[in-house]
Specification:
The complex is a heterodimer. Chain A is about 20% helix and about 35% strand. Chain A is α+β, with helices and mostly antiparallel strands. The longest helix of chain A has 26 residues. Chain B has one domain. The radius of gyration of chain B is 20 Å and the shape is globular. Classes of the chains: A alpha+beta, B mainly beta. At the A-B interface, strand 3, strand 8 and helix 1 of A face helix 1, strand 1, strand 8 and strand 9 of B.
Chain lengths: ~140, ~240
Amino acid sequence: MKVVLALPAALLAGTLHAHSLTHTAQPGSAVVVELRYGDGRAFSYEAAEVYRPAESVPFLAGRTDANGRLAFVPDRSGDWRVRAFSEDGHGGDFTVAAVAEGGSSPSSAGLGEVGGLAVGLSILFGLFGLWSLFIRKRS
Amino acid sequence: MSRHLAALLASLVSVPAAVSAHDLWVEPDAGGYQLLYGHHPQVSHEGARQIPYAADVVRSVVCLDAGGGRRPARPAGGSPVRVEGDCAVLYVLTSSGYWTKTTAGTRNLRKTEAASPLNAWLSFESVKHVSGWGAGAANPIGAPLEIVPAQDPLALRDGDKLGVRVLADGKPVAGAVVTYDGKARGETGADGTVNVRVRHGGLQLVQAAVRTPHAGPEADEVVHTTALTFALGASQ
């Protein structure tokens, strides 16, 4: 139900002409929520809103992407409300435990940095073990 | 570095959230029935919720006595629509018309009317409420889509199996996913049958949805969702 974390973004920077709107893109942590219909199809291009914990004005108002995903970068830790709905009556309204950049992890917020690092090291050790077995079998 | 590694690893984890649809069901009241649309109390985790709808979505109403004879039933306006009558079997067919998925969301338009259309469908929803057992409930009405119980559903107890047939215009529908309380319980066989286990008292909601190709440029397919409802225990 609640989705997860971390959007590795590309580093880009640029300037839009006309009224001088600048933009930056930087690596950081984002919450990515993926919405699907009951039959598994992506809930694509539908209206979505994200609210900070205990706030009633949307932090983000937009649409899901072609894969039924929406992403936001939390600036506070806590339970963020996500609403997504379509004109034909489908919808969802739930909370996602999210961690602000540099904030402490709520218990249900998925992998923190330490947890992520531990999982990463476990995967690396596992891959190394498989590679070692493969090399030994060949020799 | 560790932050980037953690972020990269965390980005591999994804748990999708399900989007719920709305349900159509019937609840008896004094001298008639209310046609309710929204979140059925047994399906929604957020609790029961009724959603207003236009009365003109009702396309046809069939009211049968226990023996299968036709009885008068009159839909009144308003929301929710109220059907006056005394029916052992009540079948209501509704349609909210054409829907088109666009890059700006789903719109209540034909595909030929919408900007940036992706796919479109003609939507039908129907419900059959059984409150008395007999030939009327045991036999098909011949509706565009219906669920026919194989035995008296009103005699069931918690844990009992109910055999149902999914029929379109009286013919078996194979491969239709049948849900109970919004959760998939099985797929119909070549004869249109599947078994569903009853898991609680009160109002029961068995649903099936069928997608068929649409003839014409207004839509790609016809989507018909039908429900069988009946009440067990004190709610009966």
